[in-house]
Amino acid sequence: MFEAVIFDWDGTLADTRQVIVISFQKALGEINCQVPSEYIERRIGIGATETFREILRSAKVQFDEGLIERLVERKSELEIELTPQVELFEGARELLEELHGKVKVGLASMNNRSVILHMLKTNDLEKYFQVVLTAESISHSKPDPEIFLKTASELKNSPARSVVLEDSLFGVKAAKAANMGCIAVTTGVYSKQELELEKPDLIVKTLKDPQILKIILQ
After folding, report:
1. Residue 191 gets which letter from DSSP?
2. 158: CB partners within 8 A, 6+ apart
3. CATH number for the domain that contains residue 55
């Protein structure tokens, strides 16, 4: 049995893909920069700061960290405005309820804190998480394991007795690098075949899959 479960948010618990893409595109549009939506989608999970850096480099737009900070702030504002369009994935609330009181539960997201806290409050999910870490909490983004190791530490749990639920390649890599268990869900932009290459302990199509609880609570 694992003693702690660490969830990702975007693409794992909540279907935020469209909202994230729109927020990035609108923020970039304000500086007359365009990028294919798929470019953004494939980077969900590494954090807005690093994504904006990669986008501006690829578009050959000169920037400093001040511009990056303004873009991240604007993207967060837009994403919060679009929160009503975000829906939890099927089985997300039920899984959290099933785990509540049985194991320690943390949230480790590379999204920004203002966005995550707003979405948790809007969906009445705050009570399920003992620890919530976001992009502001760490120095190195996924696939670096820092955010998962720090979440486990704040939960006062060892990595070996912690399991991560993730949808992105970056997240699965980070979980494996942290020597944690990892359950991957195909609710994000990555296919089962892509996720298999990173060797998670289990791949499921939905959070309703009974194998999830079996692995965590066995």
Report:
1. -
2. 3, 152
3. 1.10.150
Contact yes or no for 66/179 (Cβ under 8 A)? no
Which residues does residue 4 pair with via DSSP β-bridges, in sequence order?
A: 104, 162
Q: How many CB atoms lie within 10 A of CB 44?
A: 26
Which residue, chain included where needed, has tokens 């909490």? 137
CA angle 170, 51, 155 (to 5 degrees): 50
What distance in Å separates the CA atoms of residue 93 and residue 61, rounded to the nearest whole number? 42
CA gap 65, 2 in Å, rounded: 40
Task: Examine the domain organization and report whether 129 and 205 are in the same domain.
Answer: yes
Taking only the tens place, the pLDDT of each residue in 70-113 is 999 999 999 999 999 999 999 999 999 999 999 999 999 999 99
Structural domain for 191, as ranges: 4-15+86-217
Q: Two tokens at 163?
A: 């399991």
Its pTM stands at 0.95
